[in-house]
Amino acid sequence: MKTDFASRLTKLGTETAFAVSQHVAEFEAEGNKVYPFHLGDINIPTPENIMEAANRALQDGKTGYNPSVGIPQLRDVLAEKIGNERDISLSRENVVVQPGGKPVISKFIQALMNPGDGVLYPNPGYPIYESQIEFHGGIPLPYDYIPKPNGFSINRDRVEEMIDTNTRLFIYNNYQNPMGGESDLDEMDWIADLVQRHDLWLLSDEAYFNIQYSGKPKSIVSLPGMQERTVILYTFSKTYAMTGWRLGAAIGPANLMKIFAKLGVNDESCTNHFIQYGGVEALTGNQEGSQSILAELKKRRDSLYGKLNEMEGVSLYIPNSTFYLFPDVTDLYHQIEAKSYEDFRSIVLRETGVSFCTREHFGTPQPNEDRKYIRFAYSGISVPEIEESMAIFQEYFERQHALTLP
Prior knowledge:
With 406 residues, this protein is α/β, with parallel strands linked by helices. It has helices at residues 17-29, 48-59, 72-86, 102-112, 127-135, 156-162, 185-197, 254-267, 275-284, 288-309, 330-335, 341-352, 383-404, and strands at 35-36, 95-98, 118-122, 139-143, 145-148, 151-154, 167-172, 201-205, 230-235, 248-251, 324-325, 354-355, 357-358, 374-377. The protein folds into 2 domains: 7-45 and 289-404, Aspartate Aminotransferase, domain 1, CATH 3.90.1150.10; 48-284, Aspartate Aminotransferase, domain 2 (3-Layer(aba) Sandwich), CATH 3.40.640. Helix 5 links the parallel strand 3 (118-122) and strand 4 (139-143). Helix 2 (48-59) runs antiparallel to helix 9 (275-284), helix 4 (102-112) crosses helix 8 and helix 10 runs parallel beside helix 13 (383-404). The N and C termini lie far apart (64 Å).
């Protein structure tokens, strides 16, 4: 029996936060206390009304196949909600329900990219972008960010120098994972002009669109000329604490959504039937649950930011969106004489129990990067544990600093 696997698998990456989770689980199994900042999961229950709606559908026999594009009720309410929030006109023909947000990435690439086509994508960014581009034979074109006092902005010069006639797609994640970065209107206008000038398709990953602590979120699809060339990635995971439900949607031009539906028939037949009724309730029912989730996340953000911001050797800003902080820890990294990002992460876990992901878990670092960043996800840890963990974290580095003094 031949044991060689397909050669293309060497190009398939992974969501490396899960690899960190495995290491953390092993460390915890040895009897160690862990403070989990590594995975963007949510330890807040899904709102009760959503669970009740899904349970009713289950009891009503919604356990069989359903249309590969999703049940009509959910497609209709998604079209209405997305359209109203982004000030565009949509119908159910523009919506294909997905088993989570992640499948939208692979279907976007499969539907629109040929091998050898260039794809611009954020780096640091969600690692599945890079994985899917390489797996399907595309040319990865990673664009980076410039740190500023109030956040990060896309390195426009880098984008302009990479783009050429082979460039086909632009992946854009406003309200960005891992940095919490947020485009101002000028940056959004620049992207819209760029993709129209070069006739590119754009994937707008809007997983964190509704995780906003103040103000009103904006979508690039609302800008002139963008709706006909944009696919929105929508997911219920973050807003409604439904990470394990695996429910999301692709929203885009109707002719392209037919291709997404065809890919879905080949990949998964359809999205789980009864949970889609939970999705309808999430969008149309009582919103107190989602508002409570947001309020709790804000408390956690403020607590974690306050503790990190007072630490010597840490530099960061406070994002208005997502549930991540992305501090510059270059001084701490050198203070403990870490040999690599993984060395730094492992030492800190062992000495403090504080677990996080590093910049290295969000796309291949570029040769010119000299600052060291880590990502804290505060979605899965309570305020008391944040305060407790940061006291240990700070005390450890203060002790290390004292040891280096002459």
